[in-house]
Amino acid sequence: MHLRLTSIFLLLVLLPLSLAWTSIARADQAQTGKQLIYITSDRRIPFWDIMSRGIQQRAQQLGYQVQILSANNSTKRELEHLALALRQQVDGLIISPTSSSAGATLIKLASAAGIPVVVADIGADSDKYLSFIASDNYQGAYELGRILGSALIQKGWQSGRVGIVAIPQRRQNGRERTAGFMQALDEAGILAAGMRQQVDFSYTETYTFSRELIDSEPELRALWLQGSDRYQAALDAIKDAGREGEILLATFDAEPEFIDMIQSGQLIGAAMQQPFLIGEEAVISLDRHFHGESVTPEHKLSVLAVSADNLQTHLPTIRRNVLGQQVTP
Predict the structure, then answer these.
(1) Cα–Cα distance list, 248 to 40, 195, 198, 236, 243 (Å)
(2) Sign of dihedral through CA atoms 260, 262, 263, 264?
(3) Residues 77-116: pLDDT tens digits?
(4) I need a surface site. Which of 59, 115, 153, 221 has the fewest CB within 10 A?
(5) How many Å apart are CA 185 and CA 162, to the nearest integer?
(6) CA quadruple 316, 319, 320, 322: dihedral positive or negative?
């Protein structure tokens, strides 16, 4: 109800202000190229920072100016950023919302102002966007689940349980990750031990959730993090519980150090999205729209399910599209 009232306020108050923006400002924009804004849920998380750099690079190549605004996982700040976009009468908006319901609100308000919106991952409870570009979360989680299941079976741990530290399940991508992973576990005959949903995505939270899963399930043989940046918290929890060598770790997403960790066996596998590529594709969709070309409404990019067996094959793609390396922001 609070979000609806906020949305109504924005429509009634901020939208008229944006429509009253001076023609001088629009003339200035015309001289410097079209203006884009990217509202990301939290740029402090490496995944969103890499996507931001993909957006920046492609925008620069195509001659667009772009602002990157991080909501720092705050719905209130996210709405404030949208208000800024409305006041500036930007030409295009890219969003990675804090939740799918929040995404629907952003799309509704931007559409009312005539601003085309591209949703870059997470998803939105709306289909009024220009394009939705995302990872195939189900496919990636399913393939990672198969990697983990095979590793457990090889060790003779198929009767063990798997604990899950999940991103919020109110997000479309979170639900898809859980569904794909659970499908793979079911096929392998492996049971989940339980799930904890992240709220603040902190080290402390991830450590606490990992310890809770370890301490509550004596048969725990693996932890799966639906994110990547707090992996050290899970490793520390395993060590502090005296379970090193007894519990495998798998993650969604990737960090630069994962290349060495997968090679050494410290990490059994990772489902690696391609955030730099998603960012590039988001700008390309807007560019096609501005040039009157057709735009694919929904575009799913594959997720690389990486283990020690296929790491070298995927390495060039990992460095560029996953980690945003070997490119100039």
Answers:
(1) 32, 16, 20, 13, 10
(2) positive
(3) 999 999 999 999 999 999 999 988 999 999 999 999 999 9
(4) 153
(5) 9
(6) positive
